[in-house]
Amino acid sequence: MSLLTLHVLRLFVLRLTALLLVISGLVWIVDLFEMSRRVAGKPGVGIGDVVLATVLKSPAQAHDYLHLIVFLAAALTFWQLVRMQEFIAASAAGASPWRLLLPLGGGAALFGILWIALISPWGALGHQAYERLRTEMLGERPGHVLDLFDSGIWLRQYLPSGAALTLHAPGRKPDTGIVLAPIMVLEIGPQQNFVRRMDAQSAELLDGHWHLTDVVTTYANNQQRRAKEVLISTSLTAQTIEESFLAPRSLGFWRLPGFIDVLEGNGFSHVSYQLHYQRLVAMPLSLVAMVFLAGGLFLRHHRQRHAAWPIAIGVGASFFVFVLTSFLAALATTGTVSPLIAMWTPPSIVLFGSASLIVYLEDG
User: Fold this and answer.
1) Cα 64 → chain centroid
2) 108-138: per-residue pLDDT in tens?
3) With 70 as the cut, is the pLDDT of residue 105 above it?
4) Distance CA 153, CA 178 (A)
5) Separation of alpha carbons 127 and 60, rounded Å
6) pLDDT digits over 244-290, tens only?
7) Is 303 exposed, middle or buried (0-12, 13-18, 19+ CB in 10 A)?
8) Cα gap 91→86, rounded to integer Å
9) 157 in helix, strand or coil?
10) SS3 of 66, please?
11) Which has the closest alpha carbon to 275: 320, 330, 238?
């Protein structure tokens, strides 16, 4: 690796680190003020709780603007080379611009891989903790909490009395509505006391209630009662059950494939999780595309000493990628395109478009 390559990589890493800290800090401050406004007047909520909540949210939130940070870091690196005439001197000595672009692209790809492999899982755990803490601070009653594991479906339902029902079933019957079989229902009272346990052959979600069949109920005094059917009132619907799953960004990269398989095996919609997974997998390509975009713009404007126009064009291109990605994601939710196409198309367009521009300017 040449001294020029090491020099460029050092400039890029320094600017990437600085921008990540500065932009994340600014976003955190905005979140801090917004959360402080929302919890103002809530009893028992201190500034420490607000700070902790916003800190927990930050790693998962950084994923939304990471590609812009990489573009700005690459743009400022190229601008430094142009401003100090290092790029012109290297070109005069016969150095190809690809000697700068390929190492930076490799560094960006490595950064993306490390982010999804290491930061993404921790960010997902932080986002889960943030959601719980936010609910507590705002004094909201917990909703219906549903999760899927290899052991089956776990669903917690809160009753108006303050009691909680925990429903567990190995899975959902295929090609049916919401039918869980067999099922165990555990009722815990408002004082966290055991009330009863019901073991049933099946439970079907109907309008406003669960319909349990062949039920054995065990009470706190160990008495048992058998019944052909039992009705349990609920505000759940098929839609609210699917909405009760953890948000995609609350699941780390390594857990997503298994979670998607379990969702698919139980007949639940998994498009949003597929989109998030493909978005993570495509991140290295997205970051490389941002580096090539910055390189193409600054090669085009290498005679200019000002970075305003190239950076403005790049920010505009990043916004276009965001809009295109959102549009394709909406199409994916309707089944028009696959999640893979939706998440890989925008960065591919930017990468090949930028590479073509660089070839045209320098090699054409």
Assistant:
1) 8
2) 999 999 999 999 999 999 988 888 888 778 7
3) yes
4) 12
5) 6
6) 677 788 888 988 888 888 777 766 778 889 999 999 999 999 999 99
7) exposed
8) 9
9) strand
10) helix
11) 330
